[in-house]
Design goal:
Jelly Rolls; five-stranded antiparallel beta sheet; WaaL-like; alpha+beta; TPR-like_helical_dom_sf; 25 helices; TPR_rpt; about 55% helix; transmembrane
């Protein structure tokens, strides 16, 4: 096992020579050296049963401390950054799923200590420890951990030595009972921020755990001699039946959903939303609900509300029902009827409360097609015996859920990287350096969310085989202990360590738990316990087994290397932070000096070299120091060599080259950046801007063919983005969306190409402030890019892009619909602007209004009401003056279309020019 553990360190060392980010690879290597040393120290220290128990007690109590801090943070007593977020306990680990995995491993250790403890006071302490671990575990709200816990618990119970098996099971049942009793009250208290109530429920559960323990102890003392195995089995079966019955009751006994505001609480929307799928369009539905409502002191302060939103295939939402209950009700049955829209695919039903001193309660909700109660769906709002936070997490467990599908995407993308770097991997930290180049859609994660895949990415197949061998040795050693003649206490503790290691490793197969150093150390310490137990169980065999035995000077040398390297890296980090501070103070000379020191102490961090190069270039140009400018270029290339998958560094190189007249090199670097991070819209903006600006230069130089080539490349950007969106999974949460800047740059390039013979045309383009090509739909949502649609309750806007000629907009409803810009545009105050719309159509002019709105200033800035499209595409023009109170950069556009069947407006493009 020693050599396998050491070989894993070796795999990270080998990967240094192929690492895509040297600094990250060195960091990971140092981490694994630390893990190995922890493993070796534990296995060397734990030579007796007492030693093993001391270490396991320390591990269990440290986990208790983590859980207790998490519970205190949830109660609002302890303040610790990230310990309680979004109703989930993260504690000091600051990530709920990893906390759940850690607590699962700690629970296995604590249970094995409990079962093997010889003194009652120790078992009494462990009853509180286990209860605290499990209560905190429940409120991590980690669905994967919930699903996996029974499997790991079963492994623990089945593998325990016979004399401890029933103890471990019985003690655990006491823990479960205490936690289940306390959890509803504790969950309600932390949701309502009731500090004292939360602690009261925690203490009550702890007291129940202790009382159950001592009561069962006393009973077992009197009757243990008379209990036969058949009685034990019968009792277990009865317990399982009772537990199943209790679970069924808990999952089927509903409670009212209660929402309220105190008299002194400020007005705010408190709404619980519930999705309803499999809904038919253009169909009348009824929601039947039992309502209690307490309205406010003022007439308009209703107590309860029922809201219904219609969602189309693109998840665009339209409110189709608003029912506000102003009268006082006490458990009255109400029926609300509404009709779905022609484009309805699903619904979202909301139950609300808003005003101070009001309250609402909802229960017994049914949803069905009006006149056909056989189609009724029951909507469970809350459970009586399960905290709402937990019930919501349970109800959302399914393989189609976003977080599950997102993880599967991470895994597929990791396999792409492995395919490109199969043998030695990408080096430590390689995933977070390269995944942008391989991702299937735009997401941000520094981890693969699978330890085994991440290690495979970082160390290649060599590292994966070493990891498999390490786990193989761990399992073999554990099973050898269990099959040996060792003292049963050793076997019980070893199996607890084994179950904990398996739990932590198993959960880490689908999350990044072991990327957190503290959790990884916990696992390696368990490896050390298993190895030590194996040695004690088979002392003769282990005398001849391979064991890493190093002389004292080797330990000293390794320690010195770690200390010195850590000191240098820390010094580099410190100077880097100082440099950032100087930049914020606008003292670039001192910032440059600090970055020089940072890169001296830590020459492997690419950002130090890159930032130093930026400052050297600025100072060199200001002082006309050619040597410093040359050094800046060298440092910039060094930075790219240290982190060659960094699109930001390529972008900086491109900007530098363009600034210095190296136009082809600059464009090449920007194209490289788009390859390295294709789902980052900013790199496409930079590239399109560069294409257009360089095309202008070529036109001035008379290089029309080169200019036309660049304008074509610019237009191809939309096709590349469209292809990326086509390749993205259908369940991707979002697509790449064309931005206003990107559209403007590409549109300018298009105008350059159309006016290539006019050498001075490029001068006019500085006045083009907004452009929209309505034929572009790179995100494939059926709506022209830059725009989104909205309908009134009776509006029904349809958008169709016709053969790349124009976008046809038709409102088939009876109310108004709107198409408006997704992003704000920038107009100047007291300035004239001209709007050009290339359009055709047969919609009456009184059915269209084009609006220019601002978020600060007079509204609307302009309304164009006389829009009269002709049968043929033609340019319509209007001019307006912005007001003095307008704030630049906060404007948006909207076209209002009144409902009129079979009438349309066809828009090819829209431009806004500054006069």
């Amino acid at each position: 096992m020693d050599f396998a553990a050491l070989a894993l360190v070796g795999a990270y060392f080998i990967s240094l020579f192929v690492a895509v980010n040297i600094r990250s690879a060195v960091g990971e290597l140092l981490k694994y050296i630390n893990y190995f040393m922890a493993f070796y120290l534990v296995s060397d220290f734990a030579r007796t049963r007492k030693d093993i128990k001391i270490i396991l007690w320390a591990m269990a109590l440290s986990a208790f401390g983590v859980a207790f801090i998490g519970i205190g943070a949830a109660a609002g007593t302890f303040t610790y950054n990230g310990a309680f977020v979004g109703g989930r306990i993260n504690s000091t680990i600051q990530y709920p799923n990893t906390l759940a995995a850690y607590l699962t491993a700690a629970f296995m250790i604590s249970t094995s200590l409990w079962a093997t403890a010889g003194q009652r006071w120790q078992r009494g302490i462990l009853s509180v420890v286990n209860y605290t671990l499990f209560l905190c575990f429940l409120f991590t709200l980690s669905r994967a951990a919930w699903l996996m816990f029974p499997v790991f618990f079963l492994i623990l119970i089945v593998g325990m030595p016979g004399e401890y098996r029933m103890k471990a099971l019985g003690y655990s049942m006491e823990t479960f009972i205490a936690a289940v009793i306390a959890s509803p009250g504790f969950g309600t208290a932390i949701s309502a921020a009731q500090k004292s109530q939360a602690w009261m429920w925690y203490a009550a559960g702890a007291a129940i755990a202790v009382i159950l323990f001592f009561a069962v102890e006393k009973i077992s003392e009197h009757f243990a001699l008379h209990i036969r195995p058949k009685v034990i089995i019968t009792a277990l079966i009865i317990f399982i039946i009772l537990a199943g019955t209790g679970g069924y009751i808990a999952l089927t006994t509903e409670a009212s959903l209660t929402l309220s505001h105190t008299e002194n609480e400020p007005e705010s929307w408190k709404t619980a939303w519930y999705p309803v799928e499999n809904v038919r369009p253009d169909t009348e539905y009824t929601v039947k609900v039992t309502v209690s409502s307490k309205p406010g002191a003022k007439e308009e302060q209703w107590g309860a509300a029922l809201l219904v939103n219609s969602l189309d295939e693109n998840k665009n939402s339209v409110r189709i029902l608003n029912e506000y209950i102003k009268e006082s009700l006490n458990g009255q049955v109400k029926e609300f009827t509404f009709t779905t829209r022609p484009d309805t695919k699903s619904l979202s039903i909301g139950f609300s409360n808003r005003f101070p001193g009001t309250a609402a309660s909802f229960s017994n909700v049914q949803f069905y097609e009006s006149g056909d109660k056989s189609t009724a769906q029951k909507i469970t709002l809350a459970y009586k015996y399960i905290p709402q936070a937990i019930s919501r997490r349970i109800s959302s467990i399914n393989i189609g859920e976003h977080s599950v599908q997102e993880r599967l995407t991470f895994y597929r993308d990791a396999l792409k990287i492995i395919k490109s770097h199969p043998i030695f991997g990408t080096g430590g930290g390689g995933w977070k350096s390269v995944y942008f180049a391989y991702q299937s859609y735009r997401y941000f994660t520094t981890e693969v969310h699978s330890f085994f895949l991440q290690l495979w990415v970082e160390t290649g197949t060599i590292g994966l085989l070493v990891l498999i061998s390490l786990w193989t040795f761990v399992l073999i050693s554990g099973f050898k202990v269990m099959r040996s003649d060792a003292h049963s206490e050793i076997r019980g503790l070893a199996w607890g360590a084994m179950a904990g290691a398996v739990a932590l490793g198993g959960h880490s197969a689908m999350d990044f738990n072991l990327s957190l150093g503290a959790v990884a150390l916990y696992l390696w310490e368990l490896f050390g316990i298993i190895k030590s137990s194996s040695y004690m169980a088979n002392p003769q065999e282990n005398k001849t087994s391979s064991t890493v035995a190093w002389p004292a000077w080797a330990y000293t040398a390794i320690s010195c290397i770690l200390i010195v390297s850590s000191f240098f890296l820390y010094q580099g980090y410190t100077y880097g932070q100082q440099a950032v501070g100087y930049i914020q103070q606008q003292n670039i000379t001192k910032a440059k000096d600090a970055f020089e020191k940072a890169s001296k102490y830590d020459p492997l961090t690419a950002s130090f070299k890159a930032d130093l190069a930026q400052l050297e270039d600025v100072i060199g140009r200001q002082t006309k120091d050619d040597e410093l400018i040359k050094k800046a270029e060298q440092d910039r290339m060094t930075a790219i060599g240290l982190d060659r998958y960094n699109a930001k560094l390529q972008t900086q190189l491109g900007a530098y080259c363009l600034q210095n007249g190296k136009l082809p090199d600059g464009l090449l670097a920007l194209e490289k950046a788009s390859d390295l991070n294709p789902y980052n819209m900013e790199v496409w903006e930079n590239l399109a801007d560069a294409y257009e600006k360089v095309a202008e230069v070529y036109i001035r130089q008379g290089k029309k063919d080169e200019a036309l080539n660049l304008t074509q490349k610019s237009r191809n950007i939309f096709d590349k983005i469209s292809d990326l969106n086509m390749k993205s999974p259908k369940n991707a949460p979002e697509k790449l969306e064309i931005t206003s800047n990107l559209m403007l740059y590409v549109y300018k390039a298009k105008l350059l190409a159309e006016n290539i013979d006019d050498e001075n045309y490029y001068k006019k383009l500085k006045d083009l402030v907004f452009a929209s090509d309505f034929t572009v739909d790179a995100d494939h949502d059926g709506i022209p890019d830059l725009w989104r649609t909205s309908n009134s309750e009776k509006g029904l806007l349809k958008a169709d892009i016709i053969k790349k000629d124009y976008a046809r907009l038709t409102n088939e409803g009876q109310g108004p619909s709107y198409i408006y810009t997704k992003q704000d545009i920038s107009l100047k105050p007291q300035n004239f602007y001209t709007i050009n719309i290339m359009a055709s159509g047969d919609i009456p002019k009184d059915k269209l209004v084009f609006n220019v709105f601002t978020r600060e200033g007079k509204n609307p800035q302009y309304q164009w009401k006389e829009i009269n499209p002709t049968q043929q595409l033609s340019k319509m023009t209007a001019t307006f003056l912005t007001t003095k109170d307008l704030k630049e950069g906060k404007q948006w556009l909207r076209l209002d279309i009144q409902g009129i069947s079979q009438k349309q407006i066809n828009i090819k493009n829209l431009e806004i020019w500054e006069e």
